[in-house]
Specification:
Layout lengths: L6 E2 L8 E7 L5 H8 L2 H6 L8 H13 L3 E8 L2 E12 L2 E8 L8 H16 L4 E7 L3 H9 L3 E5 L2 E7 L17 E4 L6 H8 L5 E4 L5 H7 L3 E5 L7 H9 L3 E6 L7 E2 L2 H7 L5 E6 L9 E6 L9 H18 L1 H6 L13 E2 L1 H8 L10 H10 L1
Parallel strand pairs: 5-6, 9-10, 9-11, 11-12, 13-16
Antiparallel strand pairs: 1-2, 2-3, 3-4, 4-5, 6-8, 7-8, 12-14, 14-15
């Protein structure tokens, strides 16, 4: 096949490690089905509905026969750990779709599967152009494409990437399983500035956008997990396992907890005239619960501020608060305080029900916006 593989001898008595692409076979039908219906794979897809076996069987048979599709599986040390598919839409242009098995996410294999695929395509085509569409929430894939030199554009909240394929010297992944000191959880590009700031002070930081679970914790054994603009709810068993391995989980939330837990905290703080601010807290099994590490109240002039400007200010304030207390946060040397009172909580359904189809102008000053919502 001419696809790249390499080996690394760790001792005279150990078999070499290898990583390579192979063509998808008929016998892979069940494996591809399981990967396709993985929760995070569905969330990262533009069609989130679960795929039935009948639908998959028809699609799989058609894909195997399709001369315009290149479909590969990534193999690492004899294990099938991911898949990548290129749909050729013109003579030398194709659309990328890929996924990594959840047990191997966050370990650098997303980057490697794309690199190997570029090399494979250039053994078949003299020139080849690749493109991909990525959801706004899939920050990890966005970073991978940018790292590999893809051009980025944004259209209707869809991140679009394109690149002319080039021969790449693929760098092997770290030894499994590599120990990361920090996992940084986010689904928002606004968080990347803080991620880069942390990386400049701590080399072993993992950016993660999928659902945090025991698999990833077991793989990388972090000491600290930072959740910032992260949309997934961390399950109780994952929280318990993190505690068992000595990992602290902290969350950064742009509200003055316990006020405005949940979604759209800045919006509700103005609509319900509740206290405003930012909070860094340890995570527990309740949504935005847990003891407060650092907190700061913020005041706004509603005649001058909009939802957009106040949101940006809160983001800047919470990042600054984090940076000012970095030494204590990384070491765990801080004093925890209980959240006092019931405060308030809102979920996305409450937000949508309140708006009832109305469209918000996020640049309009708060006073005018509240008046508009009151009388509309």
């Amino acid at each position: 096949m001419g696809l790249i593989s390499w080996g690394i001898k760790t001792s005279k008595n150990m078999e070499k490690q290898s990583i390579y692409l192979r063509k998808v076979l008929q016998s892979d039908i069940k494996l591809i089905f399981e990967w396709a219906n993985d929760k995070d794979a569905r969330n990262n897809s533009f069609k989130t509905k679960e795929i039935t076996w009948a639908e998959h069987e028809t699609w799989f048979e058609n894909t195997l026969k399709d001369l315009k599709t290149r479909h590969y599986i990534l193999c690492y040390n004899g294990n099938d750990i991911g898949q990548i598919r290129i749909k050729i839409e013109e003579e030398n242009q194709g659309k990328i779709s890929y996924s990594i098995d959840k047990a191997y996410r966050g370990l650098g294999f997303g980057k490697i599967i794309l690199q190997l695929c570029e090399n494979a395509l250039l053994e078949e085509f003299k020139d080849f152009y690749l493109y991909a569409d990525v959801k706004k929430s899939n920050i990890a894939s966005q970073v991978i494409f940018k790292t590999l030199g893809y051009n980025e554009s944004i259209e209707n909240d869809i991140f679009k990437y394109n690149k002319k394929a080039s021969k790449i010297a693929v760098v092997p992944p770290p030894p499994l399983f590599f120990l990361y000191q920090i996992i940084f959880l986010t689904n928002n590009k606004n968080s990347l500035l803080l991620f880069e700031w942390i990386k400049s002070r701590c080399d072993n930081v993992l950016l993660y956008s999928d659902t945090l679970d025991i698999n990833i914790l077991n793989n990388v054994k972090p000491k600290l997990i930072i959740s910032y603009n992260y949309s997934s709810i961390i399950k109780f068993d994952t929280l318990k396992y993190a505690k068992d391995i000595g990992a602290r989980i902290i969350n950064m939330h742009i509200s003055l907890l316990p006020w405005n837990k949940g979604s759209n905290p800045n919006f509700w703080s103005f609509i319900e005239n509740t206290p405003k601010g930012v909070s860094i807290h340890e995570l527990d099994s309740s949504i935005d619960g847990g003891k407060i590490i650092y907190q700061k109240e913020v005041f706004f002039d509603e005649n001058k501020e909009s939802l957009k400007s106040s949101y940006e200010k809160l983001q800047n304030i919470i990042i600054k608060l984090f940076q000012e207390h970095w030494d204590e946060i990384i070491s765990g040397h801080y004093i925890l305080k209980e959240q006092h009172g019931n405060g308030s909580y809102h979920d996305l359904k409450m937000y949508n029900d309140f708006l009832n189809g109305r469209v918000i102008d996020f640049n309009k000053n708060i006073i005018d916006l509240k008046r508009e919502l009151e009388f509309s």
